[in-house]
Amino acid sequence: QIERGIARAEHAVQQLAEVALGGTAVGTGVNTHPEFAKRVCGKLSESLGITIEETSNHFQAQSTLDNIVDASGCLKTVAVSLMKIANDVRWMGSGPRGGFGEIELPEVQPGSSIMPGKVNPVIPESVCQVAAQVIGNDVTVAVAGQSGNFEINVMMPVAAYNLLQSIDLLATASSNLADQCIDGLKPTSRGPEMVEKGLAIVTTLVPHIGYDKSAALAHKAQETGQTIMEGALEETDLSEQELMKILDPESMTEPGVSGVSIG
Fold first, then answer.
1. For residue 81, which of 127, 26, 45 has the smallest C-alpha distance?
2. 0.90 cut: is pTM over it?
3. CA 197, 203, 209, 212 torsion: positive or negative?
4. Domain residues of the chain, as ranges?
5. Do 86 and 94 form a contact (C-beta atoms < 8 A)?
6. What totals of helices (H) and strands (E) does the chain contain, helices first?
7. What does DSSP say about strands 53-54 and 18-19: parallel, antiparallel, or unpaired?
8. What is the pLDDT of residues 141-182, one digit of tens each?
């Protein structure tokens, strides 16, 4: 998600780097020096460190805010991704006893005002609020984009305001999430324990004992509280060594049949 989010942000930069300089009022370029746009774009590129280019079609560039709408949409998608990541972190860090408790979040505040020692996921929560604001900003930019009349974009100011705010909020929230939360995450023993006691790992037994026997094994484990490993040792002819290889959780993270060598 993050890698694709970076690609989307880079696409947004490309959209915003195409400018309507040289088109004058409606895109004809009347009364403009032929090299005006080229020279100014060169100066801007040198100053900003970004390649600023004159639009290839001044008429569309002067009469629309499509590039701004596109860029804002990219930022909205990044915001949605960040909200998804932040919520996953919140859920995985919930607990330590009444939730998932698979990770420990850094303690960035003394604790809850009512419950001593409680670690609130304040950084992920702040990211979710930023995401909500950016999503709302994108709606405003979309409305601004469709509100132009002929060559006059009367809502360009509010589009620019919301776009710039989205950029600023996302940049700050991303850095804050990385520095104050992600970098300090710690795994707990809860995750591996849940995998070992979980029923889902029975899936890798299907190629070895069949679907029906695997399903029966899962039902028995659910009823008795056994692990899949313990049940399989009782109900199948597979050795402990074979089962350890077949039920190895790491082998389930890649395509293929667990415990079977395909040469």
1. 127
2. no
3. positive
4. 1-63, 65-188, 190-253
5. no
6. 11, 4
7. parallel
8. 999 999 999 888 999 999 999 999 999 999 999 999 999 999
Q: Give me the residue label for tokens 């324990």.
A: 193
> Could you tell me which residues are beta bridge partners of residue 104?
186
Question: Under CATH, which architecture does the 65-188 domain have?
Answer: Up-down Bundle (1.20)
User: Tokens 């629309």 — which residue?
Assistant: 64
Tens of pLDDT, residues 120-143: 899 999 999 999 999 999 999 999
Q: Using CA of residue 68, residue 70, residue 73, residue 77, what is the dihedral sign?
A: negative
Amino acid of residue 26: V
Copy the structure tokens of residue 82: 């960040």
- Identify the three-state secondary structure at position 137: helix
- CATH class given for the domain over 190-253: mainly alpha
Strand-pair partners of 187: 103
Tokens matching residue 240? 């402990």
